[in-house]
Specification:
By secondary structure, this protein is an alpha/beta fold. Helix content is 48%, strand content 12%. The protein has an eight-stranded parallel β-sheet with strand order 1-8-7-6-5-4-3-2. α8 runs parallel beside α9 and α11 packs across α12.
Length: 308
């Protein structure tokens, strides 16, 4: 297996809706092509940034189908397939394998607090539904309510299709611990966008993040600077990115509503709004949105090391 195809910058793909709030094939393909043209290494489809918990199985299939159609094998695609029951998760896993996704991923089941052996069974059942496809564990304990412990991780490593972790815990040292436990032939991906360079320096092979898609140039720049050993410059870019994130979080509307409006402003890309119960923007949000959009443009102009 070419594990290096999972290295680098992976935007967490956004849900693309039409004017009626339904999945838009055209807008999904447009966003996928946009990110392909930006030069990212891959896409993480159907995760938190994709509003997956508010979508049906058919919605999620439609999104992945259109992403795969748009990128035509030119990007590594990781499909997040977890639902809050095993049956639907297995259906999405099998569908992802049929489409040729490079890997599948899953959070643990949410709401009920299950013992570790039950979480392991859930993940292994999902993996079994796509037996030829690598499996990545998605660790996001602050939202899922279940943490990937070292004992659970060691159990999961007994499954040869488990190739690594998308780690979104806020403790950066978790990356180092998972990296050490997994060993060669596995990939650990940084989750918290605000800690991209911290995660990379401590051992992450790349990152998956929800704000990458609105400013991919800046994450690609950080990644390249780290590869060159230019840590101080990378820190400057991270500070600029974090300032944008903090600004976007000032809005009343959900973060992804803000991001989608910025994509309209900066990229002339309309991918709709967000799905309820996520909150849409209100008029008072527009100064925040416009300021964040301006901050992104200025940071890209200042720091981008490639032609952007």
């Amino acid at each position: 297996m070419d594990i290096e195809k999972f290295y680098g910058v992976f935007p967490a793909f956004y849900a693309c809706y039409d004017e009626n709030g339904e999945i838009s094939a055209e807008r999904t393909q447009a966003l996928a092509r946009h990110l392909l043209e930006k030069g990212v290494q891959g896409l993480y489809v159907g995760g938190s940034s994709g509003e997956c918990i508010y979508q049906s199985v058919e919605d999620r299939k439609k999104i992945l189908e259109n992403v795969m159609q748009a990128v035509k094998g030119k990007l590594t695609v990781i499909a997040h397939v977890a639902c809050n029951n095993t049956k639907d998760s297995q259906e999405l896993a099998a569908h992802a394998e049929q489409l040729g996704a490079d890997a599948i991923a899953a959070i643990p089941p949410i709401y009920f607090h299950l013992p570790e052996y039950a979480v392991a069974q859930y993940w292994n059942d999902i993996s079994a539904a796509a037996p030829a496809t690598p499996f990545i564990i998605y660790n996001i304990p602050q939202l899922a309510g279940t943490a990937l412990t070292m004992s659970l991780f060691k159990t999961m490593l007994e499954n040869p299709m488990v190739i690594g972790v998308k780690n979104s815990s806020m403790a950066a040292q978790d990356i180092q611990m998972f990296k050490t436990a997994a060993g060669e032939g596995h990939v650990i991906l940084n989750g918290p966008d605000e800690q991209f360079i911290s995660g990379r320096v401590i051992g992450a092979d790349g990152g998956i993040g929800g704000t990458y898609g609105v400013m991919p140039e800046l994450f690609l720049t950080m990644n390249e600077l780290l590869q060159k050993g230019e840590i101080e410059r990378a820190k400057d870019v991270q500070n600029a990115v974090n300032s944008v994130i903090y600004k976007m979080c000032e809005a009343h509307g959900n973060l992804y509503a803000v991001i989608k409006e910025i994509l309209r402003i900066n990229e002339k890309l309309d991918i709709g709004g967000v799905r309820r119960p996520l909150t849409e923007l209100i008029p008072e949000d527009m100064p925040v949105v416009n300021e964040a959009a301006r901050m992104i443009r200025e940071a890209v102009s200042k720091y981008c090391v490639k032609s952007c």
